[in-house]
Design brief:
44% of the residues lie in helices and 12% in strands. The chain has 15 helices and 8 strands. The chain has helices at residues 2-6, 30-34, 36-39, 62-76, 112-117, 119-132, 148-167, 184-188, 190-193, 204-212, 230-245, 263-269, 281-289, 293-305, 309-318; strands at 22-27, 43-48, 80-84, 139-142, 176-181, 199-202, 249-252, 273-277. The chain has an 8-stranded parallel barrel with strand order 1-2-3-4-5-6-7-8. It binds phosphoenolpyruvate and magnesium ion. Residues 143, 180, 182, 203, 205-206 line the site of magnesium ion. Its cofactor is Mg(2+). One of its GO terms (molecular function) is metal ion binding.
């Protein structure tokens, strides 16, 4: 089976009838990046930058971060490279950052909220990324965005970073900008935010947590935190429809995309690009290459009609 899958490595991710899907990888280190070719990933749909800080007690300075992104770009050789700014807080504690004492960390200072309340930390990362963009294309996305004010604030910081780089006579390049759609508020406010964005990526891990109000790390809540629910499926469809009305491409980088039984259904819903774990990439490609787009469409249509979590689970598991 493994041998069979490896033969798909250099073949495109497309359905039997030729519907192409972007198939990218979720990664967290240079080592991961060096393995993209092993599974034939077309690029990176999610680079979790907090992972590079997991094993260090000191925060890397701008130069160190710049070097790191340049090394990554070199390995990427012009392929899609999507960086997510630091997503700290809640379940993602870093030894180099002071821990925050909060009663409800998942509802607290995390993702973009943390970055916006630590502007120096945020601007250091942005400056490093802007400088690296001088050497290759970078898509930059922001975690935990709820509404347009957050975009206004962060784009203001980005302008400040560019002005500083001009002053310091350091070269920089242009970026494409996107958000991780991972709260119900982001879905509801999406239309207003799209004019400021080049792409979006749906983060179903947190979207599920915040839609179901169920802690994704709590083992007692496996029933309340289902991998797929009618509510989240509806939000995904709404996100895709709103974005497509504005011709914005939609990626999906949550764990859901790594499930070979679910990936075709997501394509049927209109997802343009899946970003999956390296270990799941060939299985997902195989699933897409063995199905007709028409079948994806009818699976999506059927799944969206189901109103119970267990019905949905049974339907997905029954798909062969
Ligand atoms: C998500 O929330 O779906 C996501 C991709 O991000 P993370 O799992 O890193 O929170
Ligand atoms: Mg998330």
């Amino acid at each position: 089976r493994k041998q069979q899958l490896l033969m798909l490595k250099d073949l495109p991710a497309e359905t039997l009838d030729g519907k192409k899907v972007g198939l990218l990888a979720n990664v967290g280190s240079l080592n991961d990046i060096s393995h993209l070719a092993d599974v034939g990933a077309e690029g990176i749909g999610l680079f979790r930058t907090e992972f590079m800080l997991m094993n260090t007690n000191t925060l890397p300075d701008e130069k160190t971060q710049y070097q790191f992104y340049c090394d990554a770009l070199h390995l990427m050789a012009g392929n899609t490279f999507t960086i997510r700014t630091l997503d700290v807080g809640a379940d993602k504690e870093l030894p180099c950052l002071a821990t925050i004492d909060e009663d409800n960390p998942a509802l607290g200072l995390r993702g973009i909220r943390y970055s916006l309340s630590h502007p120096e930390l945020f601007k250091t990362q942005i400056k490093a990324i802007l400088r690296a963009a001088n050497h290759g294309p970078i898509r930059l996305m922001f975690p935990m965005i709820n509404q347009i004010e957050e975009l206004d604030a962060l784009f203001e910081y980005i302008e400040q970073c560019k002005a500083q780089l001009v002053e310091e006579e350091k070269g920089f390049g242009e970026l494409s900008y996107g958000i991780v759609v991972e709260t119900p508020a982001a879905v509801l406010n999406l239309k207003a935010m799209l004019p400021l964005l080049d792409f979006i990526s749906i983060g179903t891990n947190d979207l599920t947590q915040y839609t179901m109000a169920a802690d994704r790390t709590n083992p007692m809540l496996t029933r309340q935190y289902p991998s797929l629910s009618p509510a989240v499926l509806t939000l995904i469809q709404q996100t895709i429809d709103v974005a497509h009305q504005r011709n914005i491409r939609v990626s999906l980088c949550g764990e859901l995309a790594s499930d070979p039984k679910v990936a075709p259904l997501l394509v049927g819903m209109g997802i343009d690009e899946l970003s999956v774990n390296l270990s799941a990439l060939l299985e997902v490609k195989s699933a897409l290459r063995n199905i007709n787009y028409q079948t994806c469409l009818s699976q999506a249509k059927h799944a969206l009609k189901l109103t119970r979590i267990d019905e949905l689970a049974r339907y997905i598991n029954g798909i062969d």
